[in-house]
Amino acid sequence: MWPQMANKHAHWSKATTKTFLDLCIAEKNILNFNTKGLTTVGWNILKGKFRQQRGVTYDGRQLHSKLAGLRRIYTRWHDLQHKTGLGRNRNGGIAADDSYWRTEEGDTCDVEPTCGNPPPFLEELEILFGKNTQDKLSKRPIGEQIVDSPPKKKSASIEDCLRDISEAVTRHSRKSNNYDVAKHNQVRQILEADGIPEGSELHLRAMYLCRNAVSRMELIEMRTKEGRKR
């Protein structure tokens, strides 16, 4: 598919890793990301943009392996935050004696994150792999824990019911509009990755057809450039 041969060995410098993470986050923002990682469409778009921005071509196995490794690093860091009996050092990492790390990581701390220190690109990793509200609440000092008291019972009036219905309809409409915008942007990225110039007859025809939700999903789910050009 790509004219340039994939590099036999992937070299992940800090700049290359940052570009890779930023591209993954961009795909997550347009819904090309699930619990397992990027979707097929997301990977196809990322490969082209990664090659354009970094000037190197890594194959799918190398990119999948990098994302899986970053997930493991973040998951281990995340799990350490919830272990009891461990303190924190000045860098925000886990403070423990050498015997603990020998048990956890073997004889030496030569893997990331080293000896409980925050992993590189922690902010990007949290955006990708998530830190939910419960995590944030669990980090509150004991004196600041939120105690939920039973809600007071009250009878709902007709006006309250109508207001709730109206708010629900508004939220649904807003969510639907955001979804349509995200999918239109996804179509534009696919056309760009296929090398179809913006403003060309083929580009305009595709965007016109994709005004229809069914046609839009059919184009997004096509796996080959040749199939999309028919």
The chain-level mean pLDDT equals 75
Q: Radius of gyration from the CA trace?
A: 24 Å
Low-confidence stretches: 106-113, 133-146
Task: Please tally the helical runs, counting DSSP H or I stretches of 4 or more residues.
Answer: 10
Categorize the overall geometry.
Answer: flat
According to DSSP, the number of beta strands is 4
Which series of helices and strands comes N to C? HEEHHEEHHHHHHH
Domain Myb/SANT-like: 11-102
Organism: Paspalum notatum var. saurae
Protein name: Myb/SANT-like domain-containing protein
InterPro entries: Myb/SANT-like_dom
Q: Can you describe this structure?
A:
The chain is mainly alpha-helical. It has 2 domains: 1-141, no CATH class; 156-230. Helices cover 58% and strands 3% of the residues. The protein has 10 helices and 4 strands; from the N terminus they run αββααββααααααα. The chain has helices at residues 14-29, 40-54, 60-80, 98-105, 122-129, 133-138, 158-193, 201-209, 213-221, 225-229; strands at 33-34, 37-38, 87-88, 94-95. It has a two-stranded antiparallel sheet. A hairpin with a 5-residue loop joins strand 3 (87-88) and strand 4. Helix 1 runs antiparallel to helix 2 (40-54), helix 1 (14-29) packs parallel to helix 5 and helix 7 packs across helix 9 (213-221). The longest helix has 36 residues, at 158-193. It is flat and about 60 Å long. It starts with 13 loop residues before the first helix and ends with a helix. The model is unreliable at 106-113 and 133-146 (pLDDT under 50). It comes from Paspalum notatum var. saurae. This is Myb/SANT-like domain-containing protein. Residues 11-102 form the Myb/SANT-like domain.
